[in-house]
């Protein structure tokens, strides 16, 4: 795998238009001049093709063929397949020509068809059967890596035998878990202790961790977290830190939860009305232009709405390729400075109504009602701010750039840092065809063939530190200590904000705590070395600094060593600690059952299989530890958690 052995990987999806001809002694008439279009994933090979040979309309022979992996006819410039049939007859599967935009040009001209058709009275009928992918343990676990905050053994076993479509549909149907509800539940228990700013931050932090680790709506929560890294709001802003401002941030996060499977227009509408966003990007209190008094609308939200929440910087194709001016060969901007200035006028008159607890309202007297021209569209003037916003949202959702930008962001958050351009195009077209239905977009991402490829593969990404921790906690069925949340310290004991372990170890992420509107890391960051050399990116690697790696390592070490239960019972354990459950491993350790211990660890943390190198390393640590007690069992887990195989999601 690229991120592990640093070899170059390429995408392995092709879209083919199939035509089948028989390479027998007799000629073949094509019943259908090439009309079956399928998305073919290498992992699914071989395909079974049922073939009927007919003469004069009467079937004379039926046999089965298996279509294997493709070759590429570089002279003819289209991919083709050769398959040996089980009765020693051969058939050739011929595709159309692959275009630069990812579509297939069917081979239909009489000149080209005459190469293989129509002199005899024999014909070949065929039916291409592509069964749905039935998830085994490995693929079920990989799906849950992308669609949850980490697979649990129980959830993996419950997913085996389903198709990706079935699992996604089930998750979409699960009712949402809202963070404000959990915030208020914790606050109600600790009502006499809610005076400090930190206490309020704890409510929100604990609500987030409790939900992402334990809720049934895992996919919704994972998508909401992905959206929180696109439509960024951060508690690090001076106007959003502490006290009841934490409640306002919980309300903002629930916008993302609510619309994770909703429509993009509805998401951006609610984000625009959010006082947390109005405060973070300084749109609240925006006044119309008054040049005589040197007063101009704040452009902050207008600019980031275009650049970071919808269009991105450049005009692009559906595959994400930057479009260039035919004369200057320079990238074509997706918007202009004039667009930003005009849009800033649209966002005048908006202001807070009840602090951070209620949507913003518009003061008609402070809204610029003059005509505007935004993204090439005319806004006639004399409209309310609400009417102009709806007009704007219709424009944004119709733009190809929005479809590509949002789709690419979600693909990179859930599946891979380096998606194939045709993968992007398929998902972006889903966004476009459904006018921004995010449930359909997420389903397209997780059910596309690309995430299930294995040879070759381009579906890897570095786990962010916070997702590394959630995956570890969920793998070991972690739960809070006895009597949570009654303890005076509501800290969960893992590094969010001031929620350190006693040694002060922490890591650099938390919900709604990015250092800027540009998220935790640059979207196009690539570390020097093989990734950069091969034109690939690894944005999450920006978080793995010389300071971050030992902090994360020390935190994982302490959690695995100290905050554990060997029996699964947390009675009497501190309620300000998240406790990892080792009970499934204790018997295997005591009886020195090396084979089953490592097999269970593979199921728990590694999609059911250890690489030979990792099995050797973990086996060596296991062998070095005395089995007379469980004091050293955590060292095997720590080695596993810090391995590249766990730190990389694939």
UniProtKB/TrEMBL annotation:
Signal peptide per UniProt: 1-27
Swiss-Prot/TrEMBL keywords: Signal
Pfam families: DUF1800, GbpA_2
Gene3D superfamilies membership: 3.30.70.2150
Keyword Endoplasmic reticulum (UniProt): no
InterPro entries in UniProt: DUF1800, GbpA_2
Sequence intervals crossing the membrane: none
Limits of the N-acetylglucosamine binding protein A domain: 62-128
Domain of life assignment: Bacteria
Keyword Acyltransferase in record: no
Name recorded for this polypeptide: N-acetylglucosamine binding protein A domain-containing protein
């Amino acid at each position: 795998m690229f991120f592990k052995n640093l070899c170059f990987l390429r995408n392995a999806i092709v879209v083919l238009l199939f035509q089948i001809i028989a390479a027998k002694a007799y000629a073949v008439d094509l019943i259908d001049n090439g009309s079956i279009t399928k998305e073919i994933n290498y992992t699914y090979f071989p395909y079974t093709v049922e073939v009927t040979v007919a003469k004069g309309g009467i079937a004379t022979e039926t046999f089965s063929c298996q279509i294997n992996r493709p070759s590429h006819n570089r002279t003819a410039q289209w991919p083709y397949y050769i398959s040996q049939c089980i009765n020693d007859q051969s058939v050739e599967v011929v595709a159309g020509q692959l275009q630069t935009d990812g579509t297939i040009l069917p081979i239909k001209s009489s000149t080209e068809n005459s190469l293989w058709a129509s002199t005899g009275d024999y014909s070949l009928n065929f039916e291409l059967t592509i069964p749905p992918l039935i998830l085994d343990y490995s693929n079920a676990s990989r799906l849950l890596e992308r669609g949850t905050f980490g697979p649990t053994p129980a959830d993996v076993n419950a997913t085996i035998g389903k198709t990706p479509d079935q699992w996604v549909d089930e998750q979409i149907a699960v009712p949402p878990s809202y963070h404000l509800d959990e915030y208020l539940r914790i606050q109600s228990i600790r009502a006499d202790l809610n005076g400090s700013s930190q206490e309020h931050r704890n409510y929100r932090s604990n609500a987030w961790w409790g939900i992402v680790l334990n809720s049934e709506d895992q996919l919704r929560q994972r998508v909401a977290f992905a959206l929180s890294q696109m439509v960024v709001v951060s508690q690090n802003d001076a106007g959003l830190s502490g006290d009841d401002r934490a409640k306002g941030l919980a309300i903002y996060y629930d916008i993302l939860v609510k619309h994770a499977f909703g429509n993009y227009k509805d998401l951006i509408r609610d984000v625009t009305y959010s006082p947390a966003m109005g405060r973070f990007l300084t749109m609240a209190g925006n006044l119309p232009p008054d040049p005589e008094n040197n007063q101009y609308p704040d452009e902050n939200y207008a600019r980031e709405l275009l650049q970071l929440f919808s269009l991105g910087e450049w005009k692009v194709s559906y595959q994400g390729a930057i479009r260039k001016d035919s004369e200057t060969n320079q990238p074509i901007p997706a918007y202009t400075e004039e667009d930003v200035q005009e849009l800033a006028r649209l966002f005048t008159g908006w202001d807070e109504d009840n602090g951070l607890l209620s949507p913003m309202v518009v003061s008609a007297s402070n809204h610029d009602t003059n005509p505007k021209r935004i993204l090439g569209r005319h806004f006639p003037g004399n409209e309310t701010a609400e009417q102009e916003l709806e007009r704007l949202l219709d424009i944004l959702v119709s733009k190809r750039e929005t479809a590509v930008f949002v789709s690419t962001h979600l693909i990179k958050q859930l599946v891979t840092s380096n998606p194939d351009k045709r993968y992007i195009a398929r998902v972006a077209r889903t966004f476009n065809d459904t006018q921004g239905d995010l449930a359909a977009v997420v389903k397209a991402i997780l059910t596309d063939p690309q995430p299930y490829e294995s040879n070759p593969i381009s579906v890897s990404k570095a786990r962010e530190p916070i997702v590394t921790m959630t995956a570890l906690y969920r793998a070991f069925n972690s739960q809070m200590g006895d009597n949570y949340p009654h303890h005076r310290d509501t800290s969960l004991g893992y590094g969010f904000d001031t929620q350190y372990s006693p040694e002060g170890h922490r890591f650099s992420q938390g919900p709604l705590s990015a250092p800027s509107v540009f998220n935790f890391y640059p979207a196009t960051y690539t570390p020097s070395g093989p990734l950069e050399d091969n034109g690939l990116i690894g944005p999450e690697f920006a978080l793995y600094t010389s300071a971050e790696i030992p902090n994360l390592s020390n935190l994982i070490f302490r959690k695995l060593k100290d905050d554990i239960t060997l029996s699964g019972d947390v009675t009497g354990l501190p309620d300000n600690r998240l406790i990892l459950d080792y009970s499934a491993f204790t018997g295997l350790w005591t009886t020195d059952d090396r084979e089953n211990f490592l097999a269970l660890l593979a199921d728990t943390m590694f999609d059911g299989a250890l690489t030979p190198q990792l099995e050797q390393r973990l086996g060596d640590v296991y062998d070095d530890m005395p089995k007379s007690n469980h004091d050293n069992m955590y060292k095997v887990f720590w080695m596993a958690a810090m391995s590249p195989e766990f730190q990389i999601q694939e």
